[in-house]
Each structure stands twice: as structure tokens, then as C-alpha cells.
From TrEMBL:
This is Penicillin-binding protein. It catalyses: Preferential cleavage: (Ac)2-L-Lys-D-Ala-|-D-Ala. Also transpeptidation of peptidyl-alanyl moieties that are N-acyl substituents of D-alanine; [GlcNAc-(1->4)-Mur2Ac(oyl-L-Ala-gamma-D-Glu-L-Lys-D-Ala-D-Ala)](n)-di-trans,octa-cis-undecaprenyl diphosphate + beta-D-GlcNAc-(1->4)-Mur2Ac(oyl-L-Ala-gamma-D-Glu-L-Lys-D-Ala-D-Ala)-di-trans,octa-cis-undecaprenyl diphosphate = [GlcNAc-(1->4)-Mur2Ac(oyl-L-Ala-gamma-D-Glu-L-Lys-D-Ala-D-Ala)](n+1)-di-trans,octa-cis-undecaprenyl diphosphate + di-trans,octa-cis-undecaprenyl diphosphate + H(+). GO terms for cellular component: outer membrane-bounded periplasmic space; plasma membrane. One of its GO terms (biological process) is regulation of cell shape. InterPro entries: Beta-lactam/transpept-like (IPR012338), Glyco_trans_51 (IPR001264), Glycosyltr_51/Transpeptidase (IPR050396), Lysozyme-like_dom_sf (IPR023346), PBP_transglycosylase (IPR036950), PCN-bd_Tpept (IPR001460). Residues 350-595 form the Penicillin-binding protein transpeptidase domain. The lineage of its organism: Bacteria, Bacillati, Bacillota, Bacilli, Bacillales. In the N-terminal section; belongs to the glycosyltransferase 51 family. In the C-terminal section; belongs to the transpeptidase family. Keywords: Carboxypeptidase, Cell membrane, Cell shape, Cell wall biogenesis/degradation, Glycosyltransferase, Hydrolase, Membrane, Multifunctional enzyme, Peptidoglycan synthesis, Protease, Transferase, Transmembrane, Transmembrane helix. It comes from the Bacteria.
Length: 623
């Protein structure tokens, strides 16, 4: 009974077709005051292009795909019509819409045949849809089985034919059609089922994937291979009967053994890729004015703007872009291996960032053990107390700049008290007057506090401003921060970026993972426009590099040392051994390594082995 009602509906729809066509074509003096159907369609359905959700790609420094971004579960790689083999175009036209080049978007004759076949078979298997109708359904409408949707489909199809060429429509269809298993378009079908581009398929393979869209679930090559193979043979036979291929081509294609070779989506280096997604959002916000708007918005407006920005980022990714990054796969792997080799305690976590300070590019990032994409990334989302790793930036640089002192200048390492604040040295010993080099490489605390006290807290903090540390608050403006006692602390990324100024003569430029964003044709879309800022003078930088080298040569960081044109850095250990840091640089790279537990807890047992230093050494010792 249901099938009879459906067939009756089809007959009604078919009967209405001439009237619909008549309305489309209606013109004359008596209707001059009435808008033409075409005008109404242009007003109600403005079509400037055939929108196609495409995959986006994150590329490493070599231009290789590091991660393929599939949007809205539509796994698609768009390919222009001229790059598709003629066999693909021919098969779909012969099997789906033989009058494609003659009809106006829908085919009354084809609809009539479909109704007659359905009536004869008591079914609704024959839909009579043209390629244009299928494109309208796949891109603009839904697959709801209703006559309202079918009428909308006819209107869209007619409008598509008026707006675009047959080649544009065929190109859109072949890129939009569904091939099961989340695969859309002939190119992705070729890549997914045979692991090669559509232009490299044999005739047999081309016919095989072309068999799928007629009924994707029924002709799923993975679970119903034999069904797909039988339909492939029918398609080859249609090509033969239509004299599109020779008998020899037919026999060769029919005899060819089909071997499925499915391709999994490329998605490597999750630590780094997670950050790239976050940085892309920052880049779009910066380029399109969201950053300024957010800085001035109240909490309610910020929520609205952030949601708007989120949608905008999704739209950019759906359009199909290439995100060109500075990711160094070899270095990224080396960082991961270094943590595996030296941080064996399963309860202790770690994080690291490596920057090429010459190009201001983030080359590698480690977000934690067993990291999964979009998990909490300790490399840029974990804020920890820096301990003595902050001394070069907050104590020594301001002191050297304002006093003109050098590594051999003397300073008191005796006990210091300011009201109730009486810090002690790391080993709780008392020292007299020492050189700045000795105080620095042995990480004495009282000289560092004296330096900030002499320079002034406000003045000292002014040297941190160019780095834009995100978690510094007004409560931090006090002497205890001179040895790392901040309210929240810093992320490994923030600390690494600040240290990169030591590799650039005291000039700071924000380091980025993303070099540029282009569309799939290579046209530029987004690029950072960072301006360098001089933070301290060249003479100060020279002195600081000497101090940093003293740490690795004969100070607290000797386990990080290795032969290189330059090696220098600073250790950092927080109260109760909750955090262990090493931040430093070579002639090419700046890197910071943090180890600790997510819930602050002592790791004093690891301190003497210094895994953070060994990790840093292994990361930076080879280039």
C-alpha cells in the first residue's frame, strides 16, 4: 500500500511537471506586472558559486602533509573537471543521466520512465533524478523523502542550469557525490579506496568506484565487495554497448583483479598540531579584527564574539586551506624520544618547546606523555612557577642594563631581609661577596633579590612587558618573584619565547608555528605581521650570553652541556621540588624543558639525575 501511495505521488508530481515548466517559461503582456520565476529565484536563491566543503591541510616545513582536517564528516578533496579522466565523466553520464547535455535541470522524459518502471515493479527504486538534481540535493538540500523537497529540488536544478555551465555542474556533482565510509567526491574515493589520485586509476578501478554512489550502502566496497564488483561489470558493459570503449578494453577491465588499498587519514604529531589549531584561531582573530574587539568587550560580548570567531574558523577550514607551518618532523621526533629515554617515572609529566630563534619559528612541541590531539597541552596550557629560570629576565638583565655591571662585578650573597621577607639560598648556606657570574651559575637567591630591590620592582617588571606573559597579575609586583614566586607562573612556550631574545641580540619577536595560510590553489589568505621589539641593549645581551654559558660549563646546568658553537641556559627549581626547569639556547635553537606532576607534588628524587637537563641536551645537541 505504501509503495502504491508513493507511486501515486510520483504520478502527481509528473503530472505537475508540464505546469511547472509552463510557469518557468511564462511570459507576455498580461504578466508584465509579475516578476518572472527566474527573477524570483535569483532573489530568493542567490547563487554565486557551488559551495563545496573541502578538507584542509596542515603542512610541515617540507611541505608534506602532517595533518588532514576533515570538516563536518565530509571527507573531500576537490579536483577540477579538467584533471578528471574522461572515463569518470562518461561513466556517470551514461549510468546516471544520458540526457545531461540536453535537459534544463530536470528531465520529464526520464521522470516518466521512472514512474512507469516503479509502477511495473511496485517499488520506488527509480528516482529519475538528473545529475543536476543530485547536485542540488547533495549541496543545497537534504535527502528527505518528501514531495516538498522534490519540488524544491526541481527549482534549484532549474536555477543551477540557468546560472552555471554544464561543465561547472558536472564538476560540482563529481566532487559532491557520496562514496560511503564518509568519502565524498571522485578524488577522495580514489585516494580512500586505492590510495592514489583519480588520474592514476585504471579503467577497471574507475568503474569500480563509480559503482558506489548509486546505492552507497549496498555497494560499499569494504563490506559488500561482490555487490560493487557486479555493478562495476554492468557499468563496463554499458560503456561497451555505447561504444565508449572497445571490446579489448572491456575484456581487460573486466578481467582485472580489484584490490582495495584503503588509505587512512594523515594525522601525525598531535602535540604540535593541537597548537597549530589554536594559533590559527589567534591568527584569524588578529587579521579580522576580533582581537581588538575582544580586548574592549564585556563578559557577555566576549562570549558572543568568541562563538562568532569559532564559527568563522570553522568556515575557513571548510573552504579548504593549506596551513604552512615550521614543524620540523625530525626535531619533533627527537624531542619525543628524549622524553621517553630520560623521563621513565610514569607519574611524572613533562613539556617542551623548541624555537629557531633566527627565523622566530616554533619547530617542535611536546605536550606530555602519551599525548592525544586536543588534550590538555602542557607546552602552552600549563602554567607553572619558573623558579630560578626567571632570574635572567627579571633580575640580571635589568640590573646589568641599569648599573652597567658585568659578569665579574661583585655583589653580596649575604642574608637579606625586607620586613618579614627573608629568602634563603638554595643550599641554605651563607656567602659573602661573589661575582655576578658565581651568583648566576650557582643560582644564589639573595643576590637576585638584591638586584631587583636595587633596580626597583616596577622597573624590573618593565623588562617583561614586551613578552606579554599572560598570567602576570598586579599581586606579582613584589620581591619574592625575583626568585620565581609568582601567583600563576608561565607556560613552557612563554618562557622559551622570552629566552629567544638572547639569541637575537636582545631583540624579541613573537615566534609562530604558522608561517602562512593559503587556499588550495596557493593564494595567500593569512600571515602574521609581527614587529620585533628591542628589550635590552646589545652590550647587555653579550654579558648575559656569557653568564648563561657559565651555567652549562661549570654551574648548575652542566648535564645539559654539549659541544656546540654556543650553549647556555638556566636551571629552575621551585619550592619543595615541585617543578624542574631548564631553559637555554644554542647558536640555532632556543628550548625550554619542564618536568613535574600535574598536581603539584615533590619530585626531589629526580633532582640529582637531572632528567630535564638531559632531555634538553638530547634535543639540542644535533642539528
Amino acid at each position: 500500500m505504501t509503495s502504491l501511495r508513493s507511486i501515486t505521488g510520483w504520478i502527481c508530481l509528473l503530472a505537475m511537471s508540464p505546469l511547472l515548466i509552463f510557469l518557468f517559461m511564462l511570459s507576455g503582456e498580461e504578466v508584465k506586472q509579475v516578476k518572472a520565476v527566474s527573477t524570483v529565484l535569483e532573489e530568493q536563491i542567490p547563487l554565486t558559486d557551488i559551495p563545496m566543503i573541502q578538507n584542509s591541510y596542515i603542512l610541515d616545513q617540507n611541505g608534506s602533509i602532517a595533518s588532514e582536517i576533515v570538516n563536518s564528516r565530509e571527507n573531500r578533496r576537490f579536483v577540477p573537471l579538467e584533471e578528471m579522466p574522461e572515463a569518470v565523466k562518461t561513466i556517470f553520464i551514461v549510468s546516471e543521466d544520458q540526457r545531461f547535455y540536453d535537459h534544463i535541470g530536470f528531465d520529464p522524459a526520464g521522470m516518466t520512465r521512472a514512474v512507469l518502471v516503479n509502477a511495473k515493479n511496485q517499488s520506488t527504486d527509480q528516482g529519475g533524478s538528473t545529475i543536476t538534481q543530485q547536485l542540488a540535493r547533495n549541496v543545497f538540500l537534504t535527502h528527505e523523502k518528501s514531495y516538498n523537497r522534490k519540488l524544491s529540488e526541481l527549482l534549484y536544478s532549474y536555477h543551477l542550469e540557468r546560472t552555471f555551465s554544464k561543465e561547472d555542474i558536472l564538476e560540482g556533482y563529481l566532487n559532491a557525490v557520496y562514496f560511503h565510509n564518509g568519502v565524498y567526491g571522485v578524488e577522495m574515493a580514489s585516494q580512500y579506496y586505492f590510495s592514489k589520485p583519480i588520474g592514476k586509476l585504471t579503467l577497471a578501478q574507475t568503474a569500480f568506484i563509480s559503482a558506489i554512489p548509486n546505492n552507497p550502502a549496498l555497494y560499499d566496497p569494504i563490506t559488500r565487495f561482490e555487490n560493487t564488483k557486479k555493478r562495476q561489470e554492468r557499468l563496463l558493459n554499458e560503456l561497451l554497448e555505447g561504444k565508449y570503449i572497445t571490446g579489448e578494453q572491456y575484456r581487460a577491465a573486466a578481467a582485472e583483479k580489484i584490490r582495495i588499498n584503503t588509505q587512512t587519514r594523515t594525522d601525525r604529531y598531535p602535540d604540535y598540531i593541537t597548537y597549530v589549531h589554536d594559533e590559527l584561531k589567534q591568527l584569524i582573530a588578529e587579521e579580522e579584527g576580533y582581537t581588538i574587539k575582544l580586548s574592549k568587550a564585556d563578559s557577555a560580548e566576549k562570549e558572543r564574539l568568541n562563538e562568532q570567531l569559532k564559527i568563522r574558523v570553522q568556515d575557513v577550514l571548510k573552504s579548504g586551506v593549506r596551513i604552512h607551518t615550521a614543524l620540523d618532523p625530525t626535531l619533533q621526533t627527537r624531542v619525543s624520544d628524549a622524553f621517553k629515554n630520560h623521563l621513565t617515572d610514569p607519574s611524572v609529566q613533562g613539556a617542551s618547546v623548541v624555537i629557531d630563534h633566527r627565523s622566530h619559528e616554533i619547530k617542535a612541541m611536546y605536550g606530555g606523555k602519551d599525548y592525544k590531539k586536543f588534550d590538555f597541552n602542557r607546552a602552552y596550557q600549563a602554567y607553572r612557577q619558573p623558579g630560578s629560570a626567571i632570574k635572567p629576565l627579571l633580575d640580571y638583565v635589568p640590573y646589568l642594563e641599569t648599573t652597567g655591571a658585568g659578569p665579574n662585578s661583585m655583589i653580596s650573597a649575604e642574608p637579606f631581609c625586607d620586613k618579614e621577607y627573608c629568602p634563603k639560598n638554595y643550599d641554605e648556606k651563607t656567602y659573602g661577596r661573589v661575582t655576578l657570574e658565581t651568583a648566576f651559575k650557582r643560582s644564589y637567591n639573595t643576590p637576585a633579590v638584591r638586584m631587583m630591590n636595587e633596580v626597583g620592582v616596577e622597573k624590573a617588571f618593565s623588562y617583561l612587558e614586551p613578552f606579554k606573559f599572560s598570567r602576570i597579575v598586579k599581586e606579582d609586583y613584589r620581591l619574592p618573584v625575583s626568585i620565581g614566586g609568582f601567583t600563576y607562573g608561565f607556560s613552557p612556550l612563554e618562557l622559551t619565547q622570552a629566552y629567544s631574545a638572547f639569541g637575537n641580540d636582545g631583540v624579541f619577536s613573537k615566534s609562530r608555528a604558522i608561517k602562512s595560510v593559503t587556499d588550495l590553489e596557493g593564494n595567500p589568505l593569512y600571515k602574521w605581521k609581527d614587529e620585533p621589539v628591542r628589550v635590552w641593549q646589545s652590550a647587555t645581551n653579550t654579558k648575559m650570553r656569557a653568564l648563561l654559558t657559565s651555567v652549562t660549563e661549570s654551574g648548575t646546568g652542566t648535564k645539559a652541556n654539549h659541544p656546540a658553537a654556543y650553549t647556555g641556559g638556566k636551571t629552575g627549581t621551585t619550592n619543595d621540588y615541585n617543578d624542574l626547569w631548564f631553559a637555554g639556547l644554542t647558536d640555532a635553537y632556543t628550548a625550554a624543558v619542564w618536568i613535574g606532576k600535574d598536581k603539584a607534588e615533590s619530585i626531589e628524587s629526580l633532582s640529582s639525575a637531572a632528567p630535564h637537563q638531559l632531555i634538553w641536551r638530547d634535543i639540542t645537541k644535533n642539528r
